[in-house]
């Protein structure tokens, strides 16, 4: 049995689905079901005895302690996090509560549980913390990519809260001996991605005939990682990663945001052409850049390849095609996640004059 926190969100749900597709070890799934957590992501597991879902918060120490005591997991994989930079700018406190205080309480509950295990179970146990490349800050165009030794220089409330959580995980290993692993990933994309992030937002808006909002000049560079590749990396780190170590997970796909949007438009032109025969790229609109927008992220994932033999299976071309095809094939999922609150958020975030 493993305990997955945040397992109804984008990456967490993909991980749970992939885990149970790869084998029969049961998953206990704890998720708070905030706006980005969606039980519908896990609909294919309804009635599957290998999957137990619990609606709850990692910050609820009594609940977490009870789940650990009753289910006796051999590992905890922590995906639970507030993760949207724009939302963190408008409301940073929720990010501190979940990503910092929540991680602290989870660590303490896990430490108490781990301390009560026998020696063999203690040695086999792992706490795997899933984090982001944004903790490292921003890179200049010619800077080498982030390695695991890069100094933390977070620039948004979101990345600062994740950096704090990474430091807590490290400290609980060095102070208390808790057997931890940390992964720092680049930008994920793929199925079940909540449509406030760049790629799903562009797909959803394009199909709805709405503007495709691009911050600033659109030349912000990110490394793009197909979510199922990320899941395979986490499985590999859980299986064979060295206790106390950090592993960067990247897709070796550095691309400017504007190029990403043009690629999405090109695929939609091919797979779901506009009725008027024009390209979806005509819907691109430039909007005022967000505060403190990091210019470039890039992940050096050679340590993960060198030590554990992991490499991404997808190129960006294969991954983005699969992603667009998934959204075209799942319009009901898209419609259900687009609540009134979500529509209000997008309108507020991208309102304003063109840049």
From TrEMBL:
Gene this protein is translated from: rfbB
Enzyme class: lyase
CDD domains associated with the record: dTDP_GD_SDR_e (cd05246)
All residue ranges annotated as the NAD(P)-binding domain in the record: 3-323
UniProt keywords, alphabetically: Lyase, NAD
The name this protein goes by in its record: dTDP-glucose 4,6-dehydratase
Obligatory cofactor(s): NAD(+)
Top-rank taxon: Bacteria
Reactions listed under catalytic activity: dTDP-alpha-D-glucose = dTDP-4-dehydro-6-deoxy-alpha-D-glucose + H2O
EC id: 4.2.1.46
